[in-house]
Amino acid sequence: MCGIIAYVGGEPALPRLVDGLRRMEYRGYDSAGVALVVDGSLWIRKNVGRVENLARAVDGGPPGNIGIAHTRWATHGGITQPNAHPHVDTDQRIAVVHNGIVENMNALKAQLLADGVEFRSETDTEIFAHLIRRAYKGDPQAAVASALKHIRGTYGLAVAFADHPGLLVAARNGSPLVIGLGDGETIIASDPQAIVAHTRRVIYLQDREIATITREGANVHHMEDGTEIGREIELLDNDYGLAERGGFEHFMLKEIHEQSESIERALRGRIQVREGNAKLGGLEMSPRDLRAVARVIMIGCGTSYHAGLTAALAIEDLARVPARAEIASEFRHRHPIVPPDAAFFAISQSGETADTLGAVQEIMLKGGDVHGVVNVVGSTIARTCGKGVYVYSGPEIAVASTKAFTSQVTAMLVFTLMLARTRNLSLEQGQRVAQALLGVPDKVREYLAAPGPVQKAAEIVANARYVQFLGRGYSYPVALEGALKLKEIAYIPCEGYPSGEMKHGPIAMLEQGTPVIMVAPRGSQRDKAISNLREVQARGARVILVHSAGDDELRDMADLSIPVPATSEFVSPLLTVIPLQMLAYEVARKLGRDIDKPRNLAKSVTVE
Ligand code: M6R
Q: Which of the residues 109, 443, 597, 603 is marked catalytic?
C-alpha cells in the first residue's frame, strides 16, 4: 500500500507529482504530501485525506523541477498531518517517501532517541531520514545504501536532497518501484499507471537494488556490493492505458459493466473449439506435464481467494484432480507442505499483494512449481513466478474487485479444460465445455442489459442490520464474494455461508425480515437449495434469490427474484456474481458511501 512518485526533469514537478498521486490513490488515501527541492531548500506540503486536498493546498506552488510525493495507507501512526509523508531529517535537508514496513523500527528508534534525535512523527519512515542523514558525507547514494544496511523490512523508497537539486535516490526491497525514462525527464513510481502519461520506456527495479536518478536516466546498482547493473529498458504495452470513468458515476460501476469484454479477453485465442481443448501460452506446460499434475493448489487473498475456491470446484468436477484454494497469509506462515507433484497458482489482480508474494516465495523455496494468474502485466508476482496466465481484465481502479474476479475464474476454467482433456474428458465433452465458456460473454451482456430488480433488493438490504448470503457448490464462493463486496463498500454486517451449513449456527441470526441473499442457479444442488430456502423463510427471513432465468418454480418461492441467463453449472459463478456486485454497489450508493475508495482499505495490500 501507499503510492510513491518522484520526478526530475525540465518541467514543473508539482503538477506531474500530483497527477501521479491521483492515479495511485487506490494504493491508500489517508493523507498525501509532496517535497520539492527549490533554491537549495526543501519545500514541503502535506495534508490529511485525499490527494485532492493536497492538490488544492499546493495550487500555485513553486515551479521546482525535482521532487517526491506520497499517498498514504497508514500502518505506523495514526492518520495525522505529522505522520503524512514526506519525512525529513532534523535539519530538513533530506526528504523521504516510503512504501513498506520497517520491522526493526523499535530497536532503531530507541538507538536514534538515545543519540538525541527528535522525532516529529510516529511513523517507521522517519527512521530512514535520520539514518540517511547520519551516513551522509556528500554522496547521496552511498548514504542511502549505508542507511539501508540497518533496515529489516520492506521498502520502495525515494529520497530527495536539498544539496543536490539534480538527483534523487530510489531503492527497493519488497515493494514495487518502476523508473520511467522520458525525454529529458525521469519519473519513479510504485505503479506504471503513474508514469504512462509521460513515457512507456521503463526499468523495473528489483529487490536489493538502488538507483541514482537524474533527468538523463537511472544508474542502477546492487545494494550490497555497489556493482552497476545494466538493466534492459522495457516498453509498457497498451494495457497501460489511462483509466478513466468513461461516463459512469464510479469506476466500480464501469468495471462491472466491462465484464462481458474482460471475460472475452481472458478467453481470446485460448479456446480450441474443434479440438475441445484450450491453450495457455504462458503456462509452459505440455500435455505430458499436465498429466503429471497430481493436485492443484491455488493461493490468493480476498476476492482472488474466492476465484481460487471457484476454480478448485471446477478442477475437481471436470478434471477429477484434487484441488483446493488457500488463503495466502495463512498458507505462507504455517510451514506449508509443498508437494513436488502439485501445480500451484498464485492468483492476484494487482500482482503486488504481499501475502500472496510471500506464499509464492515460500513455494519456490521449497522447490514447488508456481504459476501466476495475474492482471497487472510486469507486476512483482508475475515476474517472480516467471510463468503463468495474464487475465487481461484491463486496469481495475475501484478498490472493490469485480471484473478481475470473473477474469481470474475464466482463466482458471480455461486451464481446467486443458487439464481435463489430458484425463477423463472426451472430445465431445471438451467441445461442450469450450462452447459453454465461449457463450459466457454474450450471457453477461444479456444480463447487464436487463439486471432485474437489483434496485428493489438494494432498498431492502440498505436498511438491514445483518444480511446472510447463501450458496451451495459453485454458488458458495459466490456467496462469500457477495458478502465481501457488501461489507467492503457498504459496511453492512453480513456473512457468506454454505447453504447446507447455515442450519448449524448462522440460522440463529435470522429474525423477521432479515434479508437472505440466496444464490441458486440450475445445477446439481438446486433441489437442496429449495429446502434451505424454505428453512430460512420459516424463520421470517426475506429471500432475495439469484436464479436461472426460466426456473419459474424457484422464482415463485422467493420474496424477490433476480434471474440470470441459464448456463452450464461450472460457468454459473461468472453470471451469478454480477447481481451481487451490483447489489453492493447500489446499497453503497443509497447509503452515500465512498464507493471507489471505501474506508480503511487500499487496492493493493503490500504489507502483511
Ligand atoms: O490484488 P489482489 O488480487 O492480490 O488483491 C487481493 C485482495 O486484497 C483483494 O481481492 C481485496 O479483497 C478486494 N478489495 C476485494 O474486493
A: 603
315 DSSP assignment:
I
Whose alpha carbon is nearest atom 4 of ligand 1?
A: 348
pLDDT at site 236? 87
3-state class (DSSP) for residue 467:
strand
**Known catalytic residue: 494?**
no
178 close to 202: Cβ distance less than 8 angstroms: yes
Q: What is the pLDDT of residue 377?
A: 84
* 318, 417 contact by CB (below 8 A): yes
- Rounded Cα distance between 321 and 17, Å, is 50
Long-range contacts made by residues 408-411, C-beta under 8 angstroms, separation at least 24? 408/304, 408/307, 408/311, 408/347, 408/349, 408/373, 408/375, 409/307, 409/310, 409/311, 409/573, 409/574, 410/263, 410/266, 410/267, 410/437, 410/440, 410/574, 411/266, 411/280, 411/373
Contacts of 431 (CB under 8 A, 6+ apart): 273, 274, 276
Q: Whose CA is nearest to atom 9 of ligand 1?
A: 302
Report, in angstroms and rounded to the nearest whole number, the Rg of the chain calculated over CA atoms: 25
d(CA 32, CA 44): 11
DSSP state of 595: S
| DSSP helix/strand/coil, 556 | helix
Please list every protein residue whose CB sits less than 6 Å from any atom of ligand 1: 301-304, 348-350, 353, 356, 399-401, 484, 488, 604-605
How far apart, in Å, do the first and last CA atoms of the chain sit? Answer: 10
User: For the purposes of burial, counting CB atoms within 10 Å of the CB of 563, is it exposed (0-12), middle (13-18) or buried (19 or more)?
Assistant: buried
Q: Which residue is it, cell 514496513?
A: 101
pLDDT, mean of each 10-residue run, the chain (608 residues) = 94 97 91 97 96 95 96 92 97 96 94 96 96 97 97 95 97 94 97 92 94 97 91 79 80 97 96 96 92 98 98 98 98 94 97 94 96 92 94 93 98 98 96 98 98 97 97 97 98 97 95 97 90 94 97 95 97 98 98 95 84
Which residues sit opposite 347 in a β-bridge? 373
* Helical pair 403-421 and 259-267, crossing angle rounded to 10 deg: 30
Residue 215, SS3 per DSSP: coil
Structure-block grid coordinates of residue 565: 441467463
- Measured CA to CA, the distance from residue 210 to residue 226 in angstroms comes to 9
Residue with the nearest Cα to atom 14 of ligand 1?
A: 400
What pLDDT score does 241 carry?
Answer: 58
Are 414 and 314 spatial neighbours (Cβ–Cβ below 8 Å)?
Answer: no
Cell 509443498 locates to 338
Cβ neighbours for 2, distance < 8 A, ≥ 6 positions apart = 27, 28, 70, 71, 72, 73, 85, 98, 99, 100, 190, 602, 606
Q: Does the annotation count 2 as an active-site position?
A: yes
How far is residue 200's CA from residue 378's CA, in Å, rounded to a whole number? 13
